[in-house]
Amino acid sequence: MNVLFYNTLTRKHEVFTPIDDKNVRMYVCGPTVYDRPHLGNARSVVVYDVLYRMLMMVYGPQHVTYVRNITDVDDKINAAAKTNGEPISALTKRVDGWFHEDIAALGVLPATKNLTGKETVKDAKGIMGEPHATHHIPHMVAMIEKLIANGNAYVSQGHVLFAVNSYKDYGQLSGRKLDELVAGARVEVESYKKHPGDFVLWKPADAEDDASSVFPSPWSAGRPGWHIECSAMSSNYLGDHFDIHGGGADLMFPHHENEIAQSRCAMPDSKFANYWVHNGFLTVGGEKMSKSLGNFTTVRDLLDKGVKGEVIRLALLSAKYNEPLDWNENLVHNAKQTLDHWYRTMIPTSEEYVSSIWNSVFVHTLTKDLNVPSAISQMFGGSPHDLYAKGRILGFFNMTADEWFKGTDNSVNKQHIEFLINNRIAAKKSKNWAEADKIRKELAEQGIILEDRPDGTTDWRKA
């Protein structure tokens, strides 16, 4: 089965040919843990979760390794910790936990576990999970030393900077040229730079920096630049040359451009990543959702309002992954209506049955540049077993229909609800309509919706 990707690097659709089809390797830039993830961040996580699932369907769960890093040393983290008046370690631990809670609610698989439950990545301190930047400082220092030795980086005032002029293909991914960088006002021009486009590989600590964000190096006590973190972690787990690198469209420049430059210069015989995949922006009224603009909604905001994680997941998957998606209330409403219908219709089946449809039109659709909206359209019609299998492939149906409609927590006294429903049925049989209406109203005030069936039975669900 051919897998097709739009490769940002070549700007064309290409048939995916893994370096080793028994070891398909993918790296995706993960969160910087200074604040809760907003829906734009969540879109990226959900998109690559579906891509991971699709690759496991095609190549086998045991043959796919997916690495998604955690950036836990960064200027944004330092600034947030200072604003909060708390240690950096306390901030990053808390936000790391929030991130995992929120994406778990969205049905996202752990990046380091495949569908069989096998762990595929162990970080430098033996912790199972996404590799953390602070656990890989020695890898970053070693890569920077290579770049200096190869003439691609230089030391200046305690900083180490990558010399963009030393890499002839700089700008190939983003389509930007060095003379445009000089003219652009967004490039920082500091006295220690030889070229305005040179970027930081290592920076010295400030006097007020929290000790937990300061690390030793041959050049100064300080911390790594953001870009070198991903180059070091990806090569550490996936090798110098791997298959797929993904991330949001906003990371294409400068982050991914800089990753390519420093990685190929540190490892001259390597292509780094063969395929570059970028998901589109989540927008609000046509503007990119971002913390800097203040137009963001967090995953937790919606969960706390009672919006189920699977509803958010479906809404985030309602547009093609590399196209913009404008977030609005209709998206959530429509996703809720669709999932209610699916949960009423689907009939659970075995995981073996789910795996058996790997060669179906549905999976073929996913392999054509991850066309999730088209695959979702194929979930209407067909058998209830097929609906369940297709939903599972896309990360849905993580609860029973009873749990979906009636809840999984203890906030509802199900026994008391059933008692009231039975009393209402008895009232209707005795034609005591006033009592039946009173019970329906009482339940409605508790957020319980009754659904009377043609056969005389009554079911219920949470509003």
Give the low-confidence spans.
none
Assembly state here?
single chain
Q: What form results from the Cα inertia axes?
A: elongated
The termini sit apart by 43 Å
Secondary-structure-based class equals: alpha/beta
Number of strands: 15
Q: Into which percentage range does the β-strand content fall?
A: 5-15%
What keywords describe this structure?
4-stranded parallel beta sheet, 4-stranded antiparallel beta sheet, 41% helix, 463 residues, 17 helices, alpha/beta
What does this structure look like?
The chain has 463 residues and is an alpha/beta fold. Helices cover 41% and strands 14% of the residues. It has 17 helices and 15 strands. The protein has helices spanning 39-59, 75-84, 88-105, 137-149, 178-183, 226-238, 252-266, 299-304, 309-316, 329-345, 351-356, 361-367, 372-377, 384-393, 401-406, 414-429, 433-445; strands at 4-7, 12-15, 24-28, 64-68, 153-156, 159-162, 199-204, 222-224, 242-248, 273-279, 282-284, 287-288, 325-326, 448-452, 458-462. The strands form five sheets. Strands 4-3-9-10 form a four-stranded parallel β-sheet. A four-stranded antiparallel β-sheet has the order 5-6-7-8. A hairpin with a 2-residue loop joins strand 11 and strand 12. Helix 4 crosses helix 7 (252-266). It is elongated. The two termini are 43 Å apart.
Brief description of this entry?
The protein is of the alpha/beta class and 463 residues long. 41% of the residues lie in helices and 14% in strands. It has helices spanning 39-59, 75-84, 88-105, 137-149, 178-183, 226-238, 252-266, 299-304, 309-316, 329-345, 351-356, 361-367, 372-377, 384-393, 401-406, 414-429, 433-445, and strands spanning 4-7, 12-15, 24-28, 64-68, 153-156, 159-162, 199-204, 222-224, 242-248, 273-279, 282-284, 287-288, 325-326, 448-452, 458-462.
